[in-house]
Amino acid sequence: MAHTLDLSVKSSVVTQAVAPLVNITGLTRAGLIEALTESGVVEPRKAKMRATQIWRWVHHYGFTDFDLMTDIAKDQRALLKEKFSLARPEIVERQISQDGTRKYLIRMAPGIEVESVYIPSVGRAGALCVSSQVGCTLNCSFCHTGTQKLVRNLTTAEIVAQVQVARDDLGEWPSPKEDRQLSNIVFMGMGEPLYNLDQVADAIDIISDGEGIAISRRRITVSTSGVVPELEALGNRTQAMLAISLHATNDELRDVLVPLNKKYPIEQLMAGIRAYPGLSNARRVTFEYVMLKGVNDTPAEARALIRLLKGIPAKINLIPFNPWPGSDYLCSDWRTIEAFAAILNKAGYASPIRTPRGRDILAACGQLKSESEKKRASVVRREQRDEAASNRDTGAAEGGLPFAYLTGDMLD
Ligand code: SAH
Ligand code: SF4
Q: Which end of the chain has the least Cβ crowding within 10 Å, N or C?
């Protein structure tokens, strides 16, 4: 008997799409009020008050369970659970170095893994180096790249979660008023923060809120390879401290080291920095300068650097290059670095030489390599191809996690 399929009969089964839970971690205060109202969970007239209560439980106390929110009625908590989540991402690996450096490999989603590094005795007490993207579109020739291309931008929730995970591990909830272990945040992990400015700016709003994690904006530093058109917006929106990955004093060399320089050459970059909102002697720009043997480390270049920075309230961080397998560069000799630093010091610049931290757990610059790099190639890239394509502007760059070397005196 032949079977025929009657396509005129519509299926009586209606599949209802289940909306994913919204993670409260990634909502700014205004965003939280809006989300509470729009979800229908809270009446508009109560939304502000409810948001303040939830905010403190989440960002001051670090709670991940609605049922611990004792000033919110049980039925209201049940409604919240239906629409929202407080889940942390999974820590795939946690390592502690002999020098106290802690490295976390965090799985944000299947195939989306980032590393954050907590470095004690940096800044006021200790700094957390966070990532803003998985991979990077920019192809700086000295940055440990290896295999990773831009997978995708991190969301606000994923950026804030890096801070939450570190504070969970350090046992730093509720937010202490004094004697903090985690006092500073540096966006010096993976990715170019100014190519993900919306999410980075929202994350900074959340992290710096005085009723929550409360890390002041002047203890948050954003490092950029020089996305000039976004500098003003970064300053206006975040009031964060600015760090510039300079690495060369002339366009010819910087074009090679930081290819973005071809788009925004040094003169444009310096003009953008001079116009950075809030720049003053109390809020100086940090210039990062990686020391590459025989490439950018002569006394003449140190003097050129001084000329270039004239009139800009600045500090200079000399970063000993951290070699990676297959890299074309070598780190300058220690004596060369010291001679370079002495010239800068004489001109009045504090120019600390960053010392490698967490070497025994491979947490220093260019030493990190997340699992997502290894499995990225086929699965992740296919999944994320469209998104990556919309973000890519200089072609596929190689990745690698370029966490910087940090010293105690590099941050205030
Ligand atoms: N993309 C941003 C922020 C992340 S990189 C930027 O480029 O500024 C953080 C710092 O580490 C940058 O100054 C970068 O130039 C530096 N860096 C990258 N790879 C390095 C390596 N192998 N050795 C030393 N410093 C490195
Ligand atoms: Fe350049 Fe590496 Fe920073 Fe990307 S993360 S901009 S490749 S230094």
A: N
User: What's the pLDDT tens digit per position in 350-376?
Assistant: 766 766 666 666 565 444 444 444 344
d(CA 59, CA 26): 11
> Last residue of some domain: 44, 68, 85?
85
**CA-CA distance, 388 to 383, in Å (whole number)?**
10
Q: Are residues 141 and 69 in the same domain?
A: no
Residue 7 lies in a domain: no
The answer to whether residues 182 and 313 belong to one domain is: yes
Kindly report the protein residue whose alpha carbon is nearest to atom 1 of ligand 1: 192
Task: Mark residue 58 as left, alpha or beta (left: phi above 0; alpha: psi -120 to 50; beta: remaining).
Answer: alpha
Are 371 and 133 in contact, with CB atoms under 8 Å apart? no
Report phi then psi at 204, rounded to 5. Answer: -65, -40
Ligand 2 pocket check for 136: Cβ under 6 Å? yes
- Determine the 3-state secondary structure of 95 from DSSP: strand
Give the residue numbers spanning the domain of 35: 22-85
Q: Is 365 a catalytic residue?
A: yes
Domain count, the chain: 3
Q: Confirm or reject: Cβ of 245 under 6 Å from ligand 1.
A: yes
* Residue 44 shares a structural domain with residue 121: no
Reported pTM = 0.86
Distance 20 CA to ligand 2 centre (A): 33
Question: Does residue 391 share a domain with residue 301?
Answer: no
Residues 377-390: tens digit of each pLDDT: 333 334 433 333 33
In a domain, 173, yes or no: yes
Q: Which residues pair with 287 in a beta bridge?
A: 244, 316
